[in-house]
Amino acid sequence: MVANQASVVRDSNIVDMLHHRGIRISRIFSPEHGFRLSAEDGKFIGNSIDPATGIRVVSLYGNKVKPAPEDLRSVDLVLFDIQDVGVRFYTYLSTLSYVMEACAESGIPMIVLDRPDPNGFYIDGPVLEKQFRSFVGMHPVPVVYGMTIGEYARMVNGEGWLKNRIKCDLRIIPLAGYTHNTRYVIPVRPSPNLPDANAVLLYPSLCLFEGTKISVGRGTDFPFEVYGNPDLNYASFTFTPRSIPGVSDHPLFEGQECRGEDLREYYKNNPADSGRIVLQWIIKCYREWTDKTTYFSGYFNKLAGNSKLQQQISQGRSESEIRRSWEAGLNKFRKIREKYLLY
After folding, report:
1. pTM for the model
2. What strand order describes the sheet that includes 258-262?
3. Residues 149 and 22 reside in one and the same domain
4. Do 204 and 119 fall within a single domain?
5. Are strands 5-9 and 27-30 parallel, antiparallel or unpaired?
6. Per the domain annotation, does 21 fall within a domain?
7. What is the pLDDT of residues 140-168, one digit of tens each?
């Protein structure tokens, strides 16, 4: 084992195990939510010292999103171990790309410990257009891309998506016994507001609401399993968001009763929909919204990866019409994806 090792780790058990075995880890790079998963979505995270191991933690979700050259000084390799959920706007993909880029620029090899993708059994959604590139979507891929984090890293490298088309010295440690038909349930929550398998499955559909006036249940015990708003009078299900430290500090509509829909049993009653993005909810809320000009925020197009989806919903297009408009982009992506599959 090398003398120095930098680690970007979601599952802190890996670092704890290496540390207790006497393997020197010079620093930890921490993405959104922090190293020990103690920060809510979008919260600024500063550098720190991990109290359990005494290892320096360099935040990649604070003053910077990419390791600086000095952060990699005296590092022999970077070990990347993060549980992704297979959705384009989940920010661990952006962290992966920036770390690969930093390693390539510094001439440091990177090892990705691959992990199963809980949404890896299907591909769906609009493909991101270049002008809508952001930290919640960096590459021309659909919302759900059907790849493990290791496969995705290979694609980023192979397609020349790093800055100046630079290549990372990349190695993937593959999974045993995994296929893309494997229905994987993450044993621990991958982030504070994805508490269980049902929320992970609903996330590709419900996260689009984050670019509207509709709550996705942040500040409840079931985030990303419900949606609602105080002014949605057609719905009978209610919930009241509250502040939950480290999970949802002052969530949207805190202390206000929201009316909406409970989706905790949705896939039990509609199992076929677990392999597709469901648009009916966001379309239905738009149709019920009184002042249509206030429904969408500027963030919606970043999540969608284009301006067309908002236009289609505003024009009253049906879900099937919208889905047909994705087909050409999805077919093109499938051909790219095929080159990098490991399973």
Report:
1. 0.89
2. 226-229, 258-262, 237-239
3. yes
4. no
5. parallel
6. yes
7. 999 999 999 999 999 999 999 999 999 99
